[in-house]
């Protein structure tokens, strides 16, 4: 089962799982977001989800950190089974910034809705039932979202946790054409905070992502104007801020 825990300096979370966990999450995220151009108004959001897939793939390739976890085998059990085995399993680990993770978890609601709708074209099952069915792809993605929710419940106060979940589960679809550069802005701003301030601002990051406030609207207008000026798409426009070269997770 995928495990998610906040990093020591609250910059983001560690996503951990064994080989089966990480492969299953990687494949399910890839499947649920669909192919390039399939949902044109969600292409920016799709790329952010694929960014998590990129990290998962590199973890499987051995390019990220690993942890060893007890698997329940002890000397007596090894003798009883008559096998040569280790008493620990390898867990692959990636890190994701808090604002990035929150955006991905929120927009996955939309992708699940569209994925279920696509599947019902060849099924007699109503869409409302299909979204809640035992489809393995949807189940895997929901388990990932549930692991994030569990981590949030352990990180936020009892008062703010229900409010945050409500904001993250608004009626969908609603994040179409989301300005993905705004996620970069929040990521960079979050990294500029100290540890204690980051923890206090996780709920604020959710609010900023959900409400599309004046700051979001102004940035959206600036990006659109720059795209027109340079005769390119909004996906080619970068904001005038850089991620810090080095930071403590």
From TrEMBL:
Species this protein is from: Alicyclobacillus fodiniaquatilis
UniProt xrefs under Pfam families: DUF6904 (PF21845)
Protein name listed in UniProt: DUF6904 family protein
Keywords for this protein: Coiled coil
UniProt keyword annotation of Coiled coil present: yes
InterPro entries according to UniProt: DUF6904
Segments forming a coiled coil: 202-229
């Amino acid at each position: 089962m995928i495990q998610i825990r906040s990093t020591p300096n609250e910059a983001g979370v560690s996503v951990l799982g064994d080989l089966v966990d990480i492969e299953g999450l990687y494949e399910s995220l890839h499947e649920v977001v669909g192919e390039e151009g399939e949902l044109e108004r969600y292409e920016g959001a799709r790329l952010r989800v694929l960014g998590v897939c990129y990290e998962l793939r590199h973890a499987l390739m051995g390019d990220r950190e690993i942890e060893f976890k007890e698997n329940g085998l002890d000397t007596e059990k090894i003798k009883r089974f008559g096998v040569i085995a280790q008493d620990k399993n390898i867990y692959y680990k990636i890190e994701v910034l808090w604002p990035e993770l929150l955006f991905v978890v929120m927009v996955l609601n939309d992708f699940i809705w569209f994925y279920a709708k696509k599947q019902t074209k060849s099924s007699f099952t109503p869409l409302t039932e299909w979204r809640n069915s035992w489809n393995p792809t949807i189940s895997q993605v929901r388990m990932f979202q549930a692991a994030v929710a569990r981590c949030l419940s352990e990180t936020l106060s009892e008062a703010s946790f229900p409010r945050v979940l409500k904001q993250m589960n608004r009626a969908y679809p609603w994040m179409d054409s989301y300005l993905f550069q705004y996620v970069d802005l929040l990521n960079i701003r979050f990294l500029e905070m100290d540890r204690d301030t980051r923890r206090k601002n996780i709920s604020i990051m959710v609010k900023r992502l959900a409400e599309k406030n004046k700051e979001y609207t102004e940035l959206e207008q600036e990006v659109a104007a720059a795209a027109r000026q340079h005769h390119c798409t909004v996906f080619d426009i970068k904001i005038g801020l850089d991620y810090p070269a080095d930071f403590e997770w």
